[in-house]
């Protein structure tokens, strides 16, 4: 860019004002001090209770920097919020709690010379039962590392990374609440138009048990028995996650997220020509329980 600017010395800047102004601006920006801070994790994979988290915080100063300190914190945070409708007003409730809070101090108050600084850090997840990472409309469990350059004379420089913690869940601990037996549901619909009611459309739906953990596979079996006059071309499944406070009787609202799965293609399921013959179709699918995602 400096070479380009030099070639403008002999140019009439009144004739080419835009070119001159842009290049001068670029040259000026090159002289503006640049500072950066970045967190690098040695292993950004999934963590479990008792795991060690290590990495490096890299700070780069283009000029001497006056700081109050450089810190790195590791937090596990739970957050909930919901709205309650009372008369004509909506009352908001929210709460936050840091159940993990570890701090590393890299630098204290003073002036740091211009150069690149690398600070190693090591954090340990508590070796106890921890909640898994969770993100939803009305609640969240989040683990993160945040690094900050505290500047008394300007905006702080910050960087943060999110961590994924998966705490093992033993469904045997909940035998009094779940049955772990196959579940079956049957739906029957009578299509109608005006005063005419068709024969029923029957759906038989079975899953292998009633409780699953994240990443586990749900085995689904679907049977469709069409005795109606309708034509069925596909079957759609949705996995719906519902979150509710423990004390639902106090009027707290419920939150839900729907995970729409790709439709299951099927040959056209229609009633046969004979008045007493129906068409049946069966399919088996394996569905993986997804991570909880924010639906907003």
From TrEMBL:
Keywords: Sensory transduction. It comes from the Eukaryota. One of its GO terms (biological process) is protein transport. Coiled coil: none annotated. It holds the Pfam family Arrestin_C. Residues 198-242 form the Arrestin C-terminal-like domain. Residues 39-172 form the Arrestin-like N-terminal domain. One of its GO terms (cellular component) is cytoplasm. PANTHER family: ARRESTIN DOMAIN CONTAINING PROTEIN, FI21816P1. Belongs to the arrestin family. This is Arrestin domain-containing protein 3-like. The gene is LOC114325977.
């Amino acid at each position: 860019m400096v070479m380009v600017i030099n070639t403008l010395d002999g140019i009439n800047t009144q004739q080419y004002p835009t070119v001159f102004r842009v290049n001068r601006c670029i040259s000026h920006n090159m002289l503006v001090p640049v500072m950066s801070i970045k967190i690098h994790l040695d292993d950004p994979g999934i963590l479990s209770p008792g795991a060690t988290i290590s990495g490096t915080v890299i700070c780069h100063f283009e000029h001497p920097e006056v700081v109050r300190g450089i810190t790195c914190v590791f937090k596990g945070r739970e957050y909930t919020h919901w709205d309650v409708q009372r008369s004509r007003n909506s009352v908001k409730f929210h709460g936050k709690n840091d159940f993990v809070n570890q701090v590393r101090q890299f630098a204290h108050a003073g002036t740091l010379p211009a150069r690149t600084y690398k600070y190693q850090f090591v954090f340990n997840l508590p070796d106890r039962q921890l909640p898994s990472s969770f993100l939803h409309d009305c609640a969240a469990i989040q683990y993160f590392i945040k690094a900050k350059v505290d500047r008394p004379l300007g905006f702080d420089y910050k960087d943060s990374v999110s961590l994924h913690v998966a705490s093992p869940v033993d469904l045997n601990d909940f035998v009094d609440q779940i049955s772990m037996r196959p579940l079956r549901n049957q739906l029957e619909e009578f299509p109608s138009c005006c005063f005419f009611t068709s024969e029923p459309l029957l759906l038989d739906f079975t899953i292998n048990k009633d409780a699953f953990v994240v990443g586990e596979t749900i085995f689904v079996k679907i049977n469709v028995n069409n005795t109606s006059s309708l034509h069925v071309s596909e079957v759609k499944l949705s996995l719906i996650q519902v979150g509710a406070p423990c004390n639902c009787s106090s009027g707290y609202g419920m939150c839900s997220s729907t995970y729409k799965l790709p439709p299951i293609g099927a040959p056209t399921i229609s009633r046969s020509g004979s008045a007493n013959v129906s068409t049946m179709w069966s399919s088996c699918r394996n569905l993986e329980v997804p991570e909880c995602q924010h639906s907003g």
